[in-house]
Amino acid sequence: MPGPVTESDRLENIIRSHVYPEGGTGWRRISELPVAEELMTATGKTPSPSSLNTVSSSKDEYLRFHYGVLRHEGVEPLRRAVQIYKSAPDMAESTETCIYTEVFVRGVNIIRLGSMVRVTFSAVRTRQLVNWPASQRLVPGTVVALSPVPDNFQKRCIVAVVTGRYDEAINCSETPPPLDLEIRDPEVAASIMEPDQEYVMIEARSNYFEAVRHVMEGLKQAAKEESPFDKYLTKGAKPIARPACLSRDHPSLDISSLYHRVDANIEPLKIPAQGDIPEHIENKTGLDGSQVVALQSMITKELSIIQGPPGTGKTHTSMAALKVLLSTQPVDVPIIITAQKNDTVNELLSRCHKQGVNFIRLGGRARNDAVFQRTLFNLRAIHRGKARRRDQFQKRLDFLKSQAKILLQRCFPPFRQQLMLPEHLQVVGLITLRQCASIMVNWNGSLNTIAGDVSRHPFGPWLGNETLAIGPHQSIHVPFISDNGAGEVLGSEEGEHNSSTNIASTRLALTRVFERINDITRELKVVRWQEDIETIQESGARIIGCTTTGLTKYRGLIAAMQPRVMMIEEAAETREANITAALFPTLQQMILVGDHMQLAPHADVLELSKPPFNLNVSLFQRLVERGMEYSSLHIQRRMAPEIRRLLSGWYPLLVDHDCTRAQDAVPGMGSQRVLWFDHQEPESANRYASKFNTFEAGMVAGLYKHLVSNGTRPSNITVLTFYSGQKTYIENALRRTCQFPGRQSTDGYEETGPEVQTVDGYQGKENEVILISVTRSPEDRRKPDAGFVKDLRRAIVALSRPRRLLVVLGDAQNLALSSARHIWGGVLDKIGSWRTEYIPIFCEAHGTEIHISKPDEWEKLASEGGCGVACGRREIVHGALCDSICRGAPCRELAGSMASNVPSSHSVRSSGEGHVASGPTSLTAEEDLLDLRDW
């Protein structure tokens, strides 16, 4: 009779349910990975539709819809890419399709994830050389399709996922690196162990499969579980209930942890569980009124939705709520913190570190040292001595690797031994001794006598004509795994002179080996997660941080920790399915923090962002628009009031904190807070149709140089644009203009020059000075076109990033006459006289205003930020008038009267920091430096 189920047993059962998921029925039987047949189909299958804000009839229907939409996004870009190539196999790469030729199998890399196929390839179809270490091509997690040459996807297609790209193995950055590919079916993986067979490999530019693969797996798990949040997602339940841990017997909650100073004599600070909040709470916590209301919701409701307009302190409020929740939750049950972007997760964890809260980071690369030291990867190394059970499985895996090496050496034997014998299969345990004897009973020949006659081989009756000729310089490789687990692929030099081998027997043998290896690696995953749980528990972590992708990638591990609270930052930018797939059955509280007026989730397949699919509608937005109760923050502490007023049409309740009125002006720009530089210089497009405007890039570079010369730190300037093509042009223009001084990033690493970002990559960030390059300005003035600039959310993000100075460079008439006029018309009205056809800059020393309307006019400025005339100020020490050229604000040792106005013809060429920057100087936008998702 089995004994009682222990806590350890329960944890193992949770983990195993994720590592060995049940097949299920209906949509749960459909593979997450694309299958060959659908990639070779001329027309894709559209997922079943749904409607925004309607209540699903069942949880299964709700999950089925999200699974179908995500799977279509994961499959459709690659299907289209394959079809484009299939229609013209000799084509060069296109905007949708990456083509790699001369793909050859070079070995098998056996790592803890399983058996990976090592391949090499050529990138001759690219339109220019690729800088592979900086490239986003073929990154781990990318799904690709392969087909033998010359079949070219007519009859055969192999689906694989990139698991490794070894940039360190190449001597030149432009040489394509070796790849490891995961092929799920061991039989298919074995079938391509033909080193002289050439393949073509296709990648879709717009698709990153890893982003949806784990979410789809999580949705299948969610279908088997019950969650207290199901009623809100599928039934639209209202009002929102209290969490299970907070009974109605508790009319108030202790928030004494938010006191500014801890004093044993101070009475406990309590907040009502519902209803009006006493005014003294604000004074004693340092939170404003709207933040206190949000705090009440976050700690007392099962589902809390907090909208934080720009600059209102969303993160500050979240940290206050987190502090209270940590004081009320069991110490052995961690709280989950998650966000869409790695940077946001790291920022939250960094704040936890500063408050002395112990945490652990799952996945991601953290450049912040405090966060990096608390990654699971590092903590594993500390606890490595306790991995005895895993070591047992590792030994079994090592044994299988040695078997695989022997097998492949004998499958591809030396020249004199051209065909595999039954005894080779018996040695590695693929057939029994009796089976081997049965095959050998009618044959007593020698290898030499059968070299030219396959029919006389013991496998002859099975083979027929299926023999494979091996070229004289080909080999099969099997790895030994290095200590770091990366894998080292070693070759069998004996196999270099093989002339033929038995295809059928080889496939049979390799299939069996791969199956056994995959079984062991799954068991290793179970054991590894069990050890990880012990590591997390022993570390005393109160917080687990990861991205929303990590929520599902590590779902089994997190579920086994049985969390009760999950806080989701950037919730309005996160796909609904990512959250739904991570609603662990033990969760009692979910907190969504975001702003549905800012950036929405991204859809790789355009039609999925439109009704009836609405992939770009977050759970946050859907619940708000359905009428679910939510709290909104109202007091902003970031933008100067002149900047904030540009947003008043979208945030009518947003008001300024007093601190925003006390911000210093930006040196060299007078008292200006907002400026729109208006022009009509035409745009261009690169070969991938991303827009750029060389005129704006030149103006941005000159303005940046002027700001730095007048004392603004490079790290305090950010340049934003709506197009990745323009981002690259601006970066190159800045390199041409000046030598970047070093600057410290927020993660503590030294960087160079200003930060240049697309708007989509800058949500959640801010800076002292923001320069926005609108880019769009059509050459044909009869056809106004705003492109990406007509997106309201992007406009809000772009305009709300600065603290002290906002400069917009763009064609105002184009926006006012285009389909974006409903967005930008109101902005231009509020800007009013701040809109000019020049950039007005100021000499701090002489109070002189200078107008710059073309990029080459920046050359009229003096070398260090002044206006270029004789200084005219009296030296403090000697009392004589300074006759040096004006150097503007940095001339601190001088005092006295100001000189007269600067003659418009007087100019001195500016050298910025004194040197021309090294590095790329061409204005040609380099491929693979672009963020293709921003197109």
Structure overview:
- The chain is of the alpha/beta class.
- It has four domains: 70-207, Elongation Factor Tu (Ef-tu), domain 3, CATH 2.40.30.170; 242-374 and 541-635, Rossmann fold (3-Layer(aba) Sandwich), CATH 3.40.50; 390-519, no CATH class; 641-654 and 664-837, Rossmann fold (3-Layer(aba) Sandwich), CATH 3.40.50.300.
- It is 31% helix and 17% strand.
- It is built from 28 helices and 35 strands.
- The radius of gyration is 32 Å and the shape is globular.
- Residues 412-419, 443-456, 462-501, 741-751 and 890-935 have low confidence and may be disordered.
Produce a short descriptive summary.
This protein has 935 residues and is an alpha/beta fold. The strands form eleven sheets. It has a seven-stranded parallel sheet. Strands 1-2-5-4-3-6 form a six-stranded antiparallel barrel. α1 (7-19) packs antiparallel against α18 (503-539), α3 (59-87) packs antiparallel against α5 and α8 packs across α9 (314-328).
**Annotation field: number of helices:** 28
Distance between the termini: 63 Å
Q: How many structural domains are formed by the residues?
A: 4
Q: Tell me the overall shape.
A: globular
What order do the strands of the largest sheet run in, or round the barrel if closed?
11-16-10-17-18-9-19
* Uncertain runs: 412-419, 443-456, 462-501, 741-751, 890-935
By CATH's scheme, which homologous superfamily of the largest domain applies? P-loop containing nucleotide triphosphate hydrolases
| Helical content (DSSP H or I, runs of 4+) | 25-40%
Look up the CATH topology of the largest domain. Rossmann fold
Structural class: alpha/beta
| Annotation, overall tally of beta strands | 35
Gyration radius over CA: 32 Å
What value does the average pLDDT take? 83
Biased composition (Low complexity): 902-911
Domain ZNFX1: 94-205
Organism: Colletotrichum gloeosporioides (strain Cg-14)
Domain DNA2/NAM7 helicase-like C-terminal: 615-812
